[in-house]
Specification:
The protein has two helices and seven strands, in the order βαββββαββ. With 109 residues, the chain is of the alpha+beta class.
């Protein structure tokens, strides 16, 4: 699997939200050879060749609203999250205000 830095328009991260995180980690480890690092306070970072590629989280302990179904959220790299969210709204779409993700950068939903 290619783990180079992503360019705008390429998938760059995923968040897997599941009520069975241990089983999901086992499944993807067997399927893709992923390894994991525990995130203090909840969840695990999935890795390929030592490079972080996504997160696996337990729906029961996540900050997701009650009733959130299991899902995989896929993130796409953009040059400017603020400009992209504004353009989505200009085109009639819905975008929440962008926010900082620790020191990793900004994102919008």
């Amino acid at each position: 699997m290619n783990v180079r830095p992503r360019k705008p328009g390429e998938f760059c991260w995923f968040n897997l939200m599941t009520p069975q995180p241990a089983q999901a980690r086992t499944f993807f480890a067997q399927l893709f050879g992923w390894t994991y690092l525990e995130i203090p306070g909840g969840g695990h970072v999935a890795q390929v060749a030592g490079h972080a590629i996504g997160g696996v989280f337990d729906l029961a302990t996540s900050p997701a609203p009650p009733g959130t179904p299991p899902h995989i959220g896929v993130l796409v790299h953009v040059a400017d999250a603020d400009a992209t969210a504004a353009r989505v709204r200009e085109l009639g779409g819905t975008a929440r205000p962008p926010f900082d993700v620790m020191q990793q950068g900004r994102m919008a939903v």
